[in-house]
Specification:
The complex is a heterodimer of chains A (about 375) and B (about 450).
Chain A (H helix, E strand, L loop, with lengths): L8 E6 L11 H5 L3 H26 L14 H9 L5 E3 L5 H6 L4 H9 L32 H15 L5 E6 L6 H13 L3 E7 L2 E2 L2 E2 L12 H5 L2 E6 L3 H16 L5 E6 L18 H8 L3 H11 L5 H24 L18 H15 L12
Helix pairs in contact in A: 2-11, 2-12, 3-9, 5-12, 6-7
Chain B lengths: L1 E5 L9 E7 L6 E2 L4 E6 L4 E5 L4 E6 L6 E3 L3 E7 L12 H5 L2 H7 L10 H14 L10 H10 L17 H9 L3 H4 L38 H16 L2 E9 L1 H12 L7 H12 L9 E4 L4 E4 L5 E6 L4 E2 L2 E2 L7 H16 L13 E5 L18 E5 L3 E7 L2 E15 L5 H16 L1 H6 L3
Parallel strand pairs in B: 12-15, 15-16
Antiparallel strand pairs in B: 1-8, 2-4, 2-7, 3-6, 4-5, 6-8, 9-18, 10-11, 12-13, 12-14, 16-18, 17-18
The chains are: A alpha/beta (about 375), B alpha+beta (about 450).
Chain lengths: ~375, ~450
């Protein structure tokens, strides 16, 4: 049996940009075009505008459910930027940015949230469970951790085929205590699959604090047990996230196997519209976390470079607001998917039982005393 | 044009929310996203922003009201012809209760929205069940049906193969769905159902003069009361101790006070007597909160008495704080203020919690005795009945005295029988000899 040196696990958090907007690693900054950074920042600002609008929509009864990304924008836009468009992405549910950055149409995203006839998943999923096939972004699964073995398997398959693409999946620190985490990381380690396991450690598994989900001081330390590379990164530092994902991707493409990245961040908003963090977090803790907010930090740096100012901030917010409101207006004007499509897509062809149910529904809908409408509409 | 804003389901599967605070007045102009009100549900507390621009024409609920999801919370008289972008969805859509459209279409089988919807849901499912088939239901569902007194054979199942679910049982119990109340065997079948003869011959037709049964949903306060009563019965080991108390002396005192200009009921006397007894070390465990999950009993320093009060909406238990340190005169004033506020549905939310012991008075309708249900997390409750003149043996003579039964329920998990009995006796002693009451009066 050949003993080999396991890859390193770095627990000193990778950091490029300080909270005050000054730089620790000027060399790295040179590797990212400044115009790209301004574009990324604008996208993160827009994301925050979208999130704010969606929560209001939900509170107004116009959207069934929503999960905001607020405070964790760098953990979505950083990896999306660092990877190639042919790399596969398996988001959890808090990273619409990974698809939007790759050109997933805002309108399609909103159509999914509303669940209308142009929703790629035909209104059958909860809001937030979107799909972006054209962007190589895989559907979101509600059960936490499902995407981890999927990502490991996809990465392994690509390696077997001789592709040099990688697969990345996103999950929270709570999910890292689920069984699928072990299955995925162990398999990827054995197979040296070109996978990146991106853990957003925001301190809470919904309402359960970190300390009550695991005794390990760093999720990244778990990489040791799988013999894979591990890296802690400041998840509120867009540059550091880009750097960590780039390094992990290069490591994977070189055939050395997967990396577990633990991005330390904080969810500044509620877990979802069904959650109320006032019940389990102190105001002091939230204020402390807000001081680490990835957006103002990046803005300070951009402003110091003369790449951003208040006028651009206002304009970006106004444009994002206008874009999302227009998309929503269009989405709300569209009918729901026809009820009769309910039986499609479960199997390639309808089974006899499904066929019988479809007939029964059709007869009921045409009987005139139905509370539903046969096609579209509300 | 009037826009009726209905309370959305702002959590997942939330059925109601307590309107904790209005942020706009009637007549106020609001823009889109103007915060309208704060609502507290089982899951979140949230500020609800306006979906429309206009003038607040009417607020349909007050602060502290429990609002069912889907109920109209406020009416906005819309201003300006064209809605701006945020609300530029076609009005037909927006006014057709967006939430209802999301819920009713894909999730119809679990949405017990209206009787009409319930009926259409139940029909195709019953069509799949065989008339004489044994009822399909999980043991937990059967147990639930037994505990609610629901005949499970008469519940239309909405689950797989007509399986009766716990929701079906609770729905049938609440009487939400007419179909659920009908016998399975003769449930109306949908037009598409295979024809099937009723399994039993038609039952004798009921007299028609009475009209239809009235079905209402258990919502808001009634629902809360149900849950809390059920919880108390399910957890506390109730035992009730009844004794008769002689109120002749208190009655005389009450008359003296009335002549001196202080009109009072008997209740303040009982409250003082209870407070004095609860403050004795041997009865501290009766003025307490139990937390069975944490395995703790918290003996409360002060005596804060819950006063069960009947209102049109149902039973409320406003709290009179610090009874141990208040004069009779103060109590008389506070009691009447609290009762008025409760009946006007204007009790501040804060005044409905924090009691350490509860008194429930059935007053003139008092009957002889009852078995009061403990207002948890408290461990005891005192029920008062009608005071009336009764013949009593004093020495060797029969005399007429003012008498009342007191029914006191205790949580036997915490309170031993002799402690409970001693408590009632101690209260009785003070009430029968008010001089003793005076000795400790503060």
């Amino acid at each position: 049996m050949a003993a080999s040196q396991p890859p390193p696990v770095e627990i000193a958090p990778l950091r490029v940009l300080r909270a005050d907007g000054t730089i620790l690693d000027p060399e790295f900054i040179d590797s990212v075009p400044a115009s790209d950074i301004a574009r990324l920042y604008a996208a993160m600002v827009a994301q925050r505008v979208y999130d704010d609008r969606m929560i209001k929509m939900q509170r107004q009864g116009r959207l069934g459910f929503y999960l905001a990304c607020t405070g964790e924008e760098a953990c979505a836009y950083g990896p999306a930027y660092a990877l190639r468009d042919d790399d596969w992405m398996f988001p959890a549910y808090r990273e619409p940015g990974v698809a939007l950055w790759r050109g997933f149409p805002l309108q399609t995203w909103v159509d999914n949230l509303v669940g209308n006839c142009d929703d790629p998943v035909k209104g059958r999923q909860m809001p937030v469970h979107w799909s972006a096939r054209a962007q190589n972004v895989v559907s979101i699964s509600s059960p936490v951790g499902t995407q981890i073995p999927q990502c490991a398997g996809t990465a392994y398959a690509m390696r077997q085929r001789g592709d040099d693409a990688v697969a990345i999946c996103f999950f929270g620190e709570g999910t890292s205590s689920e069984g699928d985490f072990h299955v995925g990381l162990n398999f990827a380690g054995v197979a040296k699959a070109p996978a990146i396991f991106f853990c957003r450690n925001n301190g809470y598994a919904i309402s359960t604090p970190y300390e009550k989900t695991t005794a390990t001081p760093h999720i990244a330390l778990r990489a040791l047990g799988y013999g894979i590379r591990g890296q802690v990164v400041d998840g509120n530092d867009l540059f550091a996230v880009i750097k960590a994902v780039r390094e992990a991707a290069a490591f994977a493409r070189a055939g050395h196997g997967p990396t577990l990245i633990e991005a330390k961040t904080y969810r500044l908003a509620a877990h979802s519209t069904s959650d109320d963090p006032k019940a389990y977090r102190s105001r002091e803790e939230e204020a402390e976390a807000a001081a680490q907010d990835p957006l103002p930090r990046l803005r300070r740096w951009l402003e110091a470079q003369g790449l951003w100012d208040e006028a651009r901030e206002q304009q970006t917010q106004a444009e994002a607001s206008e874009a999302i409101l227009a998309a929503l207006a269009r989405a709300e004007a569209k009918p729901h998917p026809p009820l009769t499509t309910l039986f499609d897509d479960v199997f390639a062809a309808r089974t006899p039982l499904l066929e019988a149910q479809a007939l029964e529904l059709a007869a009921h809908l045409s009987s005139g005393d139905s509370a539903y409408r046969a096609s579209g509409g509300h | 044009m009037a826009f009726e804003f209905k309370l959305p389901d702002i959590g997942e599967g939330v059925v109601e929310g307590e309107l904790t605070k209005w942020l706009v007045d009637e007549g106020a102009e609001v823009a889109e996203d103007t915060p309208l009100f704060e609502v507290l549900t089982d899951k979140v507390s949230a500020v609800i922003p306006s979906p429309r621009r206009g003038r607040v024409a009417k607020r349909h609920f007050g602060e502290g009201d429990v609002v069912p999801v889907g109920a109209v919370v406020l009416t906005i008289e819309e201003s300006g012809a064209a809605p701006t972008a945020a609300a530029s969805a076609p009005t037909a859509h927006a006014q057709a209760a967006p939430i209802a459209s999301y819920v009713a279409a894909p999730a119809a089988p679990v949405a017990p929205v209206a009787p009409a919807a319930g009926a259409t849901i139940a029909a195709p499912v019953t069509a799949l069940t065989q008339a004489n088939e044994r009822v399909r239901a999980a043991p937990a569902t059967r147990k639930l049906a037994r505990s609610l007194g629901v005949d499970i054979t008469r519940v239309a199942g909405t689950g797989d193969h007509g399986r009766v679910t716990q929701e079906d049982v609770t729905r049938a119990h609440a009487g939400a769905s007419p179909a659920a109340a009908a016998p399975r065997a003769s449930a109306p079948t949908a037009a598409v159902a295979p024809p099937r003869a009723p399994a039993t011959p038609a039952a004798p037709v009921a007299p028609t003069a009475l009209g239809a049964d009235e079905v209402t949903k258990l919502l808001g306060l009634r629902r809360k009361i149900s849950e809390r009563m059920r919880h108390s019965r399910d957890t506390a080991a109730h035992f009730t101790y009844v004794d008769e108390v002689d109120f002749t002396a208190i009655s005389a005192l009450k008359d003296q006070l009335r002549d001196a200009g202080l009109r009072t009921t008997y209740l303040p006397f009982v409250m003082k007597a209870v407070a004095i007894v609860l403050q004795r070390p041997e009865f501290h465990s009766l003025n307490a909160h139990v937390d069975y999950q944490a395995g703790t009993l918290t003996k409360k320093a002060g005596v804060h008495l819950g006063i069960a009060t009947a209102t049109d909406a149902g039973l409320l238990v406003p709290v009179v704080q610090d009874v141990h340190g208040k004069s009779l005169r103060t109590l008389v004033g506070e009691l009447s203020a609290v009762a008025d506020a409760a009946r006007a549905n204007a009790l501040p939310v804060a005044s409905l919690s924090g009691s350490t012991f509860t008194i429930t008075s059935l007053g003139k309708a008092g009957g002889m005795f009852a078995t009061p249900i403990i207002n948890q997390p408290e461990v005891a409750i005192l029920g008062l009945h009608k005071i009336e003149k009764r013949p009593v043996v004093v020495g060797d003579a029969i005399v007429i005295r003012e008498r009342m039964y007191m029914s006191c329920s205790f949580d036997h998990r915490i309170i031993d029988g002799h402690i409970g009995a001693a408590f009632v006796q101690a209260v009785r002693e003070l009430l029968e000899a008010p001089a003793l009451l005076l000795a400790d009066l503060r």
